[in-house]
Amino acid sequence: MTYQAPVADIQFTLTHVIGASALAETERFAEATEDMSEAILTEAAKLTESVLAPLQRPGDLHPARLENGVVRCSPGYAQGYQAIAEGGWVGINADPDFGGMGLPMTLTTAVGEMMNSACLSLALNPLMTQGQIEALEAHASDEIKALYLPKLITGEWTGTMNLTEPQAGSDVGALTTKAVPNSDGTYAISGQKIYISWGDHDLAENICHLVLARLPGAPMGTKGISLFIVPKYLPDGDGKPGVTNRLNPVSLEHKMGLGGSPTAVMAFNNATGWMIGAENTGMAAMFTMMNNARLGVGTQGVGVAEAAYQHALAYAMDRKQGRSPIKGGTGTIMDHADVRRMLMTMKALTRSARAICYDCAYSLDMAKATGDAAWTARAAFLTPIAKAFGTDVGSEVSDLGIQVHGGMGFIEETGAAQFARDVRVTRIYEGTNGIQAMDMVGRKLADGGTAAEALLDEIEATAVTARDAHPLLADALQDAGECLAETTRWMVEQELNDRFAGAANYLRAFALTLGGHYLMKASLAAPGDTARLALAQFHLRQLVPQVTALALSAQEGAEPLYALSVRDFAQ
Amino acid sequence: MTYQAPVADIQFTLTHVIGASALAETERFAEATEDMSEAILTEAAKLTESVLAPLQRPGDLHPARLENGVVRCSPGYAQGYQAIAEGGWVGINADPDFGGMGLPMTLTTAVGEMMNSACLSLALNPLMTQGQIEALEAHASDEIKALYLPKLITGEWTGTMNLTEPQAGSDVGALTTKAVPNSDGTYAISGQKIYISWGDHDLAENICHLVLARLPGAPMGTKGISLFIVPKYLPDGDGKPGVTNRLNPVSLEHKMGLGGSPTAVMAFNNATGWMIGAENTGMAAMFTMMNNARLGVGTQGVGVAEAAYQHALAYAMDRKQGRSPIKGGTGTIMDHADVRRMLMTMKALTRSARAICYDCAYSLDMAKATGDAAWTARAAFLTPIAKAFGTDVGSEVSDLGIQVHGGMGFIEETGAAQFARDVRVTRIYEGTNGIQAMDMVGRKLADGGTAAEALLDEIEATAVTARDAHPLLADALQDAGECLAETTRWMVEQELNDRFAGAANYLRAFALTLGGHYLMKASLAAPGDTARLALAQFHLRQLVPQVTALALSAQEGAEPLYALSVRDFAQ
């Protein structure tokens, strides 16, 4: 089974569920018409199906390796990367002034999903570069922009993010990498960074590291962090890779999956860097970049979920087994109720997460296009949901995919296990899903719940629209929405740690309800489509009932979690 | 972090939650006193902590491999296996007449859990042999018993189960392996079997295969299957391994995990075998063996869950990170509500699954000791729950263990990922968890719900006992029980496929409620123990609320699952 890009459902979701056609009515994204979208998606389908999908297995069988200080990538990755770069896909949403296509994040996300489905490990490379482009566009000087952006946008150079240090994981403020000013305006960067995705490789002529570091005498914590660009090769007078910088990959991690993506420990030894933005404002710049990267990571989950679903479905449709429990069955395991339950769960979760990610991207675009703070708040609220739920779905769907395969699922040659192993890290990096949930009930409810309530109003509107034709489903959606509204009010009145205690359950409940809302919208937009109705019904009657339980558990507060002493845990 | 056998909680669970002391009052298990139990558990702790646990990583790093037709095991496995055999652990519950210890399955299960925690892949070897011992004790002729049982019980020889063929997975009746009578009363066995755990290895002097095959002219399907014992080396006149039999491992599977356990494709080419039991009764014999093996596999899940929990807890207690969100915290990630939520979920699920498995084993013992059909029915009803929930918990807890580790969780050196990879197959083999759920709502409700209702009565009794001291928790337990009672009544009135459609949700709901019942019993048995109360509270208020949603979804029937055509799935 090879991946087939679900162009029809993606386009349907964009147009009828998200309403992304409205983008073409803005000045900023006037070019993003439905026709343009279809053309882009069709091109992306060709790239992902024929060039990238065949690289998925080789990345696992022959992971990137460090040889004599140089990272050698998996077989075929060089050609795959070249196709991505030459197709202009790295700069799909970058500034046209520097060679980008200037397309909306909505479309970037849809294309990203396809690349993630086809080959997650390689697709992570341009995702890192895109994050860097965004950071430079927003915070770099004109000189830096002119030098770096064209190279990054064409994919001639790639980008990385260097945040984490051994003693500073989720707590970025604890980092100790130093940046000492040189006499020429540059900085000497020294320190060690870990978990650097695509920190070194042989796919492009230069690698640009965005590094968080501290200036001498900078304040403690996150307020004393500045951002630097530190290229592997220092650009010469013509902007070409020149002298080798004083940095190197120390080792690559031996991971559970995603072997095609080299994860490096990077050492900086008085490496030359240039500051991005003002002194001690590195965290703000990083957050710009990180928020969009969080959506990108959520979309990684969606991509893997889609691919794992297709993979399991192809197996189920082919696998003959036993007497059929139904009349007129196919003789395959598709006849079995429990196999159908698994596949419908996979499909419903994947489509829910897809719509959440696209809607988040759409909100970012509308915020850019209109400058309306309500769109910014909507995007900000949806971001942790997109990241955490998207990646949870990636794991859950690929795990169900293994189960659909039965014994074959545990055998690596089948490929089902790789999806689960590869996607596992997405729930961890770019802020663990626990951190996402804390962000959601902390920062994202700091507005007193306004952004949350605006989304809940949309959900209620869908329920109202659905009521005549589908009263039971409308009730299920409305009940879940009301349950969330009540939980939201509870949340905003609590101390932070009481919110945190219920954060994961609240996020899950919100995401499941949003999924019901989007799948219902999809069904309403296609009145004769029995399959879309059946999927909405499945989601609302098999998955959304959990919302009540999750909302209840979310309101228990922190105290019960601290009733066990550390010693009690170990008993 | 090395594994520490939780002897205290195991003993507490056996005595106060399951009430296993009653076994010593029966004639059959008069020796199984609390003192004996403690002595056995203490010995098993020594073996598992110091001998077996160090083999866990080597099994993953250096999986068993097939070299020139011979399987070479992972480093240290030979010594580990020898320690298991010499300790008498293979024959712990086997018939004393043949050298077994004759101890109850309850204690066997507790010891099995420890071995699974320490090194799942190696522990699978004696588990297979134990299944074979049981099958031979129940169905073999005196001659076969006298020849094979003493060797299997000492661990000099090991056993395997050969059911699956490429075209016959869950549908065992489709198998085609042939058994042609020889003139001397033996049979010539020919065919290929797949997924044979420990099908070949270099740990013991002989390997005895129990093989399902068809006699010439046997009926189609499961009614035409007979069981044979087919040793690697034919026993000579002295009962020692003699002539090499015509069978061999063709290949070993390359798996997602459990690399220390060789999973072989076995070829039988007119191999000599002896029939076990009567012609065409192989499935019945296999079911005896499989039912106990299912409990054994559920216990694999519990073992891995316990080990993964300990591993994650040790990391969390050690990992310093960020500002503490609480006053008087430890400065480690244990201070964070969401980390505590994960760890408490892990602990509650592990203890729930442990109690379910032990209670299932206890029911088997009581059935043997008393001959009372109610105990047999209780064991039969608990078996699919023990297998499916135990292994689901193994996966869920080890997955949470990865998450607790953050970025380190994705790095193989940490060891967290191995638990999740190793345990993944337990949800598939010995009947997938979907098959378990179908068994539960099919065969195990064929009594009209009597066995289910008897368990629900026990749950209600716990709620009644708890009411005075803990009214809210008692309500939560009672509500869940009533919800299950109603769902059970719904189930027994439905067509089989409508039951199947809700089977997985029903099983999950039943298991979560049983978990609440056992954790509440544990708390009631230790009145001053705030930790046990806190854990019961967590389970009943964070996990048991899902029961209502699951029960609701379980009663939707099959129709919605068939509303999508096969083609619709692929859209």
Automatic annotation (TrEMBL), chains A, B:
Superkingdom of source: Bacteria
Residue ranges of domain Acyl-CoA dehydrogenase/oxidase C-terminal in the record: 280-440
One annotated GO molecular function: oxidoreductase activity, acting on the CH-CH group of donors
Record SUPFAM superfamilies: Acyl-CoA dehydrogenase C-terminal domain-like, Acyl-CoA dehydrogenase NM domain-like
Cofactor(s) demanded: FAD
Segments forming domain Acyl-CoA oxidase/dehydrogenase middle: 161-270
All copies of domain Acyl-CoA dehydrogenase/oxidase N-terminal, residue ranges: 81-156
Catalyzed reaction equations: 3-(methylsulfanyl)propanoyl-CoA + oxidized [electron-transfer flavoprotein] + H(+) = 3-(methylsulfanyl)acryloyl-CoA + reduced [electron-transfer flavoprotein]
Domain Acetyl-CoA dehydrogenase-like C-terminal intervals: 455-564
Family, per entry: Belongs to the acyl-CoA dehydrogenase family.
Name of the molecule in the record: 3-methylmercaptopropionyl-CoA dehydrogenase
